[in-house]
Structure formats: C-alpha cells, structure tokens
Model the fold of this input.
Amino acid sequence: MKTESPTVYDVLGIGFGPSNLALAIAIEEQSQASVCVPLHALFFEKQERFGWHRGMLIEGTTMQVCFLKDLAMLRNPTSPFTFLSYLHDKNRLVDFVNHKILFSSRVEFHDYLEWAAAKLKRLVQYDAEVVEVSPVICDGVVKWLDVVVQRDGNPSHHEIYRTHNLVIAPGLEPTMPPGISRSERVWHSSEVLDRIAHLTEEPQQFTVVGAGQSAAEITAYLHDHFKYAKVRSIFSRYGYSAADDSPFTNRIFDPLAVDEYYQARDDVKKMLLNFHRNTNYSVVDADLLEDLYRRHYQEMVRGESRLEFMNVSKVFGAVADRDSVDLSVEFLPTGDMRKLRSDIVVFGSGYKIADPIRYFSDFAGKCIRDSFGQLRVARNYRICTSEDVECGIYLQGTTEHTHGLSSTLLSNTAVRAGEILEAMTWERDNKKISSHA
Ligand SMILES: Cc1cc2nc3c(=O)[nH]c(=O)nc-3n(C[C@H](O)[C@H](O)[C@H](O)COP(=O)(O)OP(=O)(O)OC[C@H]3O[C@@H](n4cnc5c(N)ncnc54)[C@H](O)[C@@H]3O)c2cc1C
Done:
C-alpha cells in the first residue's frame, strides 16, 4: 500500500452515477469558461464502466422525469451536455421533436448519460471502489481527507488519494424483506435483466412481489418476454396506485421547493413527505397500470390466466431449493396462510439510503447528527462537522431528510451540482465557509 499522495485534489467524488456526473459536467464547464482557476477533480466508480441501473434497463420503459431535467439544462441551458445537445450530436433532434414526448425511453436516457460520461472520462476512474476515508490532521485540524481506493475488486490492490473536498454520491442500496435473502432463484428487481441473461432453462412460473414501479415493469416484461410462463404478482395493497405527476404536485421537485423544505420545521418536513410520497414511492405510472389491467382483462375474455394478481397478500418466507422456491403467503383480510411454488421470485422491495459516511471509521464522530441520528447537512449539501474539520464533505442523493423528495431523484441534479461547485469554489477562493455546528 502506498503511504503518501503526491497530489492534493480540490475534489474527489465517490460514485459516478448521474449525481457526480452532473458535478463533473459543472466542473468541466467552469474550466472551459475560465472565470476562475478550475477545480482539480477526480471521481471513483466501482462499476467497470458507466452504468445507470443496468439491471432494470427494460426495453420500452420510459423515464419518470422530463428530458429537460437532464444533467445540465436547469443550471445552464446553453451547456453542451444537455439532452438536446446529445440528440443533436446523434443526429436525432428533429426525429425526437416529431415524437412529441416529454419522457424519453430509459434506454435512450442511459445512452445520453453514457455519452456525457464518455466525454469526461479523464475525470473518472472505473473499477475503483472507495473503501475507506481517513482524516489528515495538521496542527490539530483535519486539513485533508485520504481516500482509499480498491482496484478491480482486489482487496490487496489499494491506492490513496488526498483531497480538500469529498463529494459522496453512492446511490441507494437494494433491500430485501426481513428474513429473505437473494439466491439463484430469489432476485431483487435491480438485478433482473442480468439474472435473466444467465438463465439456463426457461422458467414456467414467475412471482413478482411488490406494487411499485419496478415490480409493475417487471411483471409486464416477464409476461411479454416469456410467452409460455405464468406470471403471478403479489402485493399487500388492494391494487396498484397511480403515481401523481400532475403539474401542481410536480412543483415539489422544483429548486425553490428545496429551499422551502430545507428551512421548514421537522413536523412540516414530515407532513410534506407524507403528502407527496405518492409521487415516487410504491406507485406506478398510470399508463403501465392501465396496460397491466388491459392484459389481465383480455386474458379473462379468452379464458386464460397466465397473468395473476394476488392483492392484499403478504409474502412471509421464500425458501429456495435447486428446482424451485416455496413461498409462504398470507391473505391479509382473513389471515389465511398459503404455500405457493414458483421457479423464480423477484422482489420489488425497493432501496434504502445507506449511511453515506460508512467508510469513515473513527472520523465519522466529527460529523454532526441530529436528535434522530441523521446527519446534519447545510443548505449547500455540506455535512456539518466539528470546528476542527477544515475540509468539506458534501452529500448527493442521501439528503431526503434535509432537502426533500427530489434528493434521491434526477429532477434537481443539475442545479444541485451547481450549488455544490459554487460552495467548493467559494471556499477555495475565500477560505472556508461555515458548516460547523
Ligand atoms: C430502475 C430505476 C429507475 C429510475 N428512474 C428514475 C427516473 O426516471 N427519474 C428519476 O428522477 N429518478 C429515477 N430513479 C432514481 C435514481 O436514484 C436516480 O435516477 C439516480 O440513479 C440517482 O443518481 P446517483 O448518482 O445519486 O445514484 P446512482 O445512480 O445509484 O449512482 C451511484 C454510483 O455510485 C457507485 N458507488 C457506490 N458506492 C461506491 C464506492 N464506495 N466507490 C465507488 N463507487 C461507488 C455506484 O456503483 C453507482 O454507479 C430510478 C431508480 C431506479 C432504480
């Protein structure tokens, strides 16, 4: 292991998904504009190449955010990194316009993200997982951070990089229901396409658990893709609920909403999250929901039952052997328990916000938490730290408790990246903005 770092970066980033990609773009534009000395930046991504939820890149699925809320547009409409610039570069601008849509396909948006990431490849290292962050103390002050990067998944292959600022954007972690683990036949929605690609025989019975967007998309996909298989969908709701993407409600994702949410009292924050959970959590795009109902009804007309819905039902166990999975399912209104068998079970059980400073060891104690144990974060996304920390630690994606519903989504990515860049540049040029408690 190397013990010293020759360079002190202005900013190092953990993760190179859309959040840090948007930041890299903002940094690149800053350097092109030559308005100030550009920040010296480098990002680490543990995947071997750029990828945005590849396991769920289902053909035909669409984005749940308008294409104008891309990596740059709302920060700088003249950016060469907008979705429109991408379309122009790909010679598809006119064709896209003729389409008259606001929501591109996910496959196309992924291609856009890859296109942008490829333009900035000198700012990112792939196959590079950050496994530890430790403080560099000078005269009793934490002046820099040392970021330990593991290469190629090899625990003995480490490098250390030193930085003034760290921007942590690790995304969310897939979660399984309590007591249920992933296996060859028990999958999480995030891995569904990878798993299907490796199937050695065609399953006859799939079960999809959950009533959110991913579960509904997978149900439709399996029903389309495996023409002879039965597809059973189990969820504890009475039925799928439609996502609210109406215009007034959509304002909850505006940049202004972040300001308002940030300054609100805790009870108001909680109220807003509850009011508008149905924009994002456990809901399904209305078109998809209608499509599933239509398929189901057509099967009833034909006297078929290849697509089955078990509502108000909860899966309590999934025990897999070599050939199948045994599910324990309770019908909630009566409490009746049933045993069901399936070849494959896919859980659309969502994601959680993992502790973003889990790599920090003892140094984590210098990051201040609120009475609920959550990190205190300044409006500019900088973690509040004790007085003796001079370096900046910024969060992207893990700030729903402080900055609201758009934190885990793409809506505000471009604007947030600009705000973080501004904060880091200001600090470098004016020496130290206050983020202390
Ligand atoms: C299937 C699906 C569809 C979605 N569709 C939409 C949508 O249409 N609209 C919308 O607004 N939101 C959508 N989302 C929400 C999603 O969270 C955001 O789109 C987006 O991925 C957030 O970007 P991010 O960069 O913060 O996180 P991510 O995209 O998750 O990227 C984080 C990156 O960090 C890397 N990483 C993690 N830990 C480390 C480490 N220690 N070292 C190095 N690298 C690390 C990961 O490999 C990953 O590439 C969707 C989510 C899913 C799962």
Observations:
- The two ends are 35 Å apart (CA to CA).
- The mean pLDDT is 95.
- The chain has two domains: 8-172+353-430, 174-242+281-350.
